[in-house]
Write a structure and sequence with these properties.
Layout lengths: L1 H6 L1 H21 L6 H16 L8 H21 L2 E3 L1 H18 L3 H12 L12 E3 L3
Antiparallel strand pairs: 1-2
């Protein structure tokens, strides 16, 4: 082990960093009692985090670009796994976005987009429509 560290200290360090960063995420992505939708959301979120990991976040517009990239990757990943946006959620979200926009004094489209990015990463509580639904065969 010591010989390995002396020969390849950088590779070993990167391996440790990767293991520390990904082991909780991988365990979370495997399910731990989640529904198939929840497991798929976690897997796609992990993929999206890795896809945007190297993007800089120094300036405000860069943070927005990174969030947009992650949302796009999650959306494509979920579509690849047979899910699509739920029209019932869109109807409910448009009403809620209008109220939220007035409260926070932002545009309706910004409020909707913020709600969309949050809703696409979690399952809906009982009685509310989920952002994702299984695509009809």
């Amino acid at each position: 082990m010591q010989r390995l560290l002396r020969r390849h200290p950088i590779h070993f360090a990167w391996l440790l960093v990767w293991i520390c960063m990904n082991s909780p995420l991988l365990a979370q992505a495997e399910g731990n009692g989640l529904s198939p939708l929840g497991q798929t959301i976690n897997q796609c979120d992990l993929i999206a985090m890795k896809a945007a990991a190297d993007l800089p976040e120094a300036l405000p517009f860069q943070r927005l670009e990174k969030a947009a990239r992650q949302a796009h990757v999650v959306e494509r990943c979920m579509q690849d796994r047979g899910y699509q946006e739920n029209p019932a959620w869109v109807t409910q979200a448009n009403v809620a976005a209008a109220k939220l926009a007035k409260q926070q004094q932002i545009s309706t489209s910004e409020a909707y987009e913020n709600m969309r990015r949050q809703a696409m990463l979690k399952e809906a509580p009982a009685g509310k429509p989920s952002y994702w639904r299984k695509r009809a065969a």
